[in-house]
Amino acid sequence: MKILIMVDMEGISGITSPDQVNADSGRYYAEGRQYATWETNACIKGCFSGGADEVIVRDAHMYGKNLLWEQLDPRAQYVFGPIGDIRLPDIEDCDGVILLGYHAMAGTPAAVLEHTMSSAGWQNLKVNGVNFGEIGIDAAYAGEYGVPVLLVSGDDKCCAEARSLIPGLLTAQVKRALSLSGAKLLSRENAHTLICEKSAEAVGRCFSQKPFAVSHPVTLTLEVTERTPLPSLRNRPYMKLLNGHTIEVTADNFVDAYWRLLS
Ligand SMILES: [Zn+2]
Q1: Helix, strand, coil percentages for the chain (3-state, nearest 5)
Q2: Which residues surround ligand 1, an ion (CB under 5 A)?
Q3: Where are the domains of the chain?
Q4: pTM for the complete prediction?
Q5: Per the residue annotation, which of 61, 103, 115, 192 is the catalytic one?
Q6: Ligand 1 centroid vs 10 CA: distance in angstroms?
Q7: What CATH number should be reported for the domain whose range is 2-113+133-208?
C-alpha cells in the first residue's frame, strides 16, 4: 500500500503565527520548520504501523522547502521544491492521501491562518458554485485519480470543514483555534501521539474509503483580492471574467479546470 502525505504548515501542532510559516520574513520560521518535521515523522511512523509499504511526502507549503531533510524518517521518500504542474506527486499509483497540517478555507471566522492558496491574491474560490478551500482542492484532485483522502489534520475549523466535505472522514485536531493567530494547543507529546495513532487508523481502513468526486464538467469561480491583476482572455476560450475581480473557468474534470485557472 502506497500513501502520499501532503504537508502544509498552518495546521501543524505548535504553529499559530504567520511568523512561524513565512520563509521570507518569519521571525520564528526555524521553529515552524522543526515542528512540521517532527509531526511529519509522527505521521510516517503511523502510516507504516498501519500497514503502508511505501510513503511519499510532499513538502507542500510555499516553496516546498520547509521540512528539515536531515531529520526525516529514512523509510519515506521526499518531494521538495517547485515541481511544475504536479500538484500531488505519484498520485496515479497511490492508494490514499493524508493532508497533514492543513487549514480552513479563506473567510472562516477565528481559524488559525485561514486562507485559500494565497491570502494576498485569493479572496474566495467556488467549485461548481460551492465554497472550497485547500482540503477540497486536494480531495477533488486526488479523486480524479480514484484516490481517497484518508485523514486531515489541523485546527478544529479545518477538521470540521474536512468532515463536512467528506462525511465520516477521519480527522486529527491538534489545536482549537481562538483567533487567526491564536489557539489552545495540545502538548508536543500528545499532538504527535494523536497524529501517529490517527495515521495508523486511517491507513488501516484505506481500502474501505471512497474517493471524493465533484460532478463534471467542473466550473471554478475565483474571486481575487482588490487590485490583483486579472489574466488575459487571449487564447483562453474556457475563461470568463464575471466582473473586475471574479474569474471563471470550465473544464471536463477538476484537474484540467485547476490548471486552467492557475496557468
Ligand atoms: Zn501553507
Answers
A1: 30, 25, 45
A2: 8-9, 61
A3: 2-113+133-208
A4: 0.97
A5: 115
A6: 6
A7: 3.40.50.10780
